[in-house]
């Protein structure tokens, strides 16, 4: 059976108390809507779903990008009306249409697949997803006849006392035979209570017409949580974070205290890596094998090689090769690229700079817009003075150089291969290879002693 999908995202999000649509608010590091689109794609939806937005849906369009097609509901006249606006894009595309909501981010791909399988196996006209909740407050109730057949769904605002006692709720996910759906939507009438066209009325309509209606109950009732308030957003975050952490532990990652580790949905972590408490792994971060991350580390859109250590540091938009050690209390900013066996210690900041293999920057200092070769020692307090108030300028430090403590490198400037700077030097001119310079401004020493073969390991 072929199927396609509609995602409803035209709501006004009034209970969310936000200037932005609730479905673009981040959940586990990505917009809420993307969790729904991801699940549909993984479930096998063959084409980008149609997302129905309101007239102010630019933020939703920007969040989804090319992963969705869009239809616009001009006025908020209910969920049944919203689906009607998707018809021009979907008519004739597939045998069945799966309808879901952008604020249902916890529904798993396997649940969507189970819905499709049950629908096809039963030859159903309409299949709906239900759940049994101890407290069904706020949800529409599923109405069944004495034989257990689904007869309809009643919204809580219109439910009588008997309906409110029922604990089987409508999740808000449907799979409907397309040839029946589009004419049926045209026959829906507004509710006399709220004046809206309810999508849920399709269930009673199909049952009254003798069409096969099937209910699929959730195996995990947590999936039914809809996000309408910030409180529910926090609850969904907690559930997703637990799922993500469980996944990585099952794939060989050690989380010393899973309740205090925050891993974004888009992150990737290699086996035998150990994550310590109070660590945040955000964005599209990639971490290799056998690393040690944390405690108190923040990695955001970082790429970390194998056998690395990042301790109590911030690494954002940076690339670390294998066996790099960062921290504690270091800050790697976007564009930082560290070669193999580089060591960056406490209170060091690196921005838009490349450090070659085995280079050391043990304590303090700032490198910005710099290219540093291999086997370089960056002494404590070194600063690249890269900004002249108008433009940024580059600093180049060649292989084997030794930069003394408190050196100021006034860019643009080049320090040659195996050159050295004395403590407190202010380097305003290029330093030739194998030359010692010192002083303010720095000048060559009368005789330059040969530099050490390797950087100071301290």
Write the layout of secondary structure elements.
Elements: E1 3-9, E2 26-27, E3 30-31, H1 32-43, E4 50-53, H2 58-64, E5 69-72, H3 79-84, H4 87-90, E6 96-101, H5 109-122, E7 126-132, E8 141-144, E9 150-154, H6 161-164, E10 168-177, H7 178-187, H8 201-208, E11 213-217, H9 230-250, E12 254-255, E13 261-263, E14 268-269, E15 274-275, E16 279-282, E17 286-287, E18 292-293, E19 298-300, E20 303-304, E21 309-310, E22 314-316, E23 319-320, E24 325-326, E25 331-332, E26 337-338, E27 343-346, E28 349-351, E29 354-355, E30 360-363, E31 366-368, E32 370-372, E33 377-378, E34 383-385, E35 395-397, E36 402-403, E37 408-410, E38 413-415, E39 420-421, E40 426-427, E41 436-438, E42 443-444
Parallel strand pairs: 1-4, 1-6, 4-5, 7-11, 12-15, 13-16, 14-17, 15-18, 16-19, 17-20, 18-21, 19-22, 20-23, 21-24, 22-25, 23-26, 24-27, 25-28, 26-29, 27-30, 28-31, 29-32, 32-35, 33-36, 34-37, 35-38, 36-39, 37-40, 39-41
Antiparallel strand pairs: 2-3, 6-10, 7-10, 8-9, 41-42
Report on the architecture of this protein:
The protein is α/β, with parallel strands linked by helices and 458 residues long. It has 2 domains: 3-224, Spore Coat Polysaccharide Biosynthesis Protein SpsA, Chain A (Alpha-Beta Complex), CATH 3.90.550.10; 230-444, Hexapeptide repeat proteins (UDP N-Acetylglucosamine Acyltransferase, domain 1). It contains 9 helices and 42 strands. The strands form 8 sheets. Strands 14-17-20-23-26-29-32-35-38 form a 9-stranded parallel beta sheet, with no helix packed on it. A hairpin with a 4-residue loop joins β41 (436-438) and β42. α1 (32-43) packs across α5. The longest helix has 21 residues, at 230-250. The protein is elongated and about 100 Å long.
